[in-house]
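Batch job 17 of 40 flagged for manual review because the log was empty.
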Amino acid sequence: MRILFLTSAYLPDGVGGIEMLLLQACRLLRSRGYTVEILTPEAKGPDQVEGVRVHRLNLIKPIQARDPRALLAVDRRLQEIIQSFQATVVHSHDMGPLLWFYLRIPPASTPPRPPLIVSVHNVMTEHLQPHNLAPSSFTRMGRLLESADLVTAVSHSCLRDTLSYAPSIADRLELLPNGVLPPRHPTGKPDPDQMLCVGRLVPQKGFDRAIEAMVAIRAQRPTARLLVAGVGPEAQSLQALVARLGLQEAIDFLGLLNGDSVRQQMARSALVLMPSRYEGLPLVALEAAWAGRPVVASACAGLNEAVLADVTGVLVPEGDVPALARAALALLEDQPRAARLGAAARTRAESEYSLDRYVSNCESLYRFVSRSGGCAIAAPPHSSQLP
């Protein structure tokens, strides 16, 4: 079976959760005999990543410049890739210009357009809120999803949100939770003073709140430290906030870390802070669970599914910095409780959030849409029926 993935960004420059999920999924799919390739609108980057062909279309600049000739060239290049690869299934991760261009290919083209699965990774009404989009934008987004043969959502929050702007796809919308690799090595005893934030340095992740919480945490526990791993447009403003609060000795910015380095830092940390404003089903929370580390997180969409309150971590009201500080400090001061929460998180990750489970579920959906031939399929396999 041949799978073509569409994604808005990819490695090495794209380093978000979708990109890391795709990297790991491609490894496992190839080991199971699948042929996989990736298509992204990013023009910059290598044409192979870990032996997987990456087609990079120069799509963003022509859209920004409204250059019809360049867009026509992209259109032709896209059709050439589709025709040459002859995918069994096309699997798009999130909705963007690339998906819109793909859907411009007529379903009855020669060769026929392959069946399409679209995976929604975010609570899009929250994700797009800062852009002040008109309601018509969500109508158009819903129409994109109506053109898919199957739509998946990574969490119940994403599923409900998707139905709010695309109610007509209810009969072909499936829950498909993310999965991650377990750590390569057993995790040892953590540093009781170290906390960790991991992710893109963007407003969504709420790292400004973690930094602000450190003022109260350090007042009670002067040895407490926070490591921030990631890159993004908020880097300078977050560093300026650290300086303004006088926390230079308490907070270190680690920059971009590879997967192994992230797992090592999780193993060394007593807990992971995730004060996000919203999420889909964040890989960081799942990786923390695999590492046996509790998460202190906002009780926001997506995170309230990845973290079970007082079972695998602690949830605080979204935006409540004092509550975030109190919850983190309480776990730092109560290591036995932190260890119990971390152990419960690991048990849950093993049963629900393995990469093997995620890829096996994808395989079931690939087989289903390929057998159905795409186009207005009915009765997809529900998540309860997936392996």
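Reviewer: the log was empty due to a logging misconfiguration, but the result itself is present. Residues 83 and 111 are 6 Å apart (CA to CA). Unflagging and moving on to job 18.
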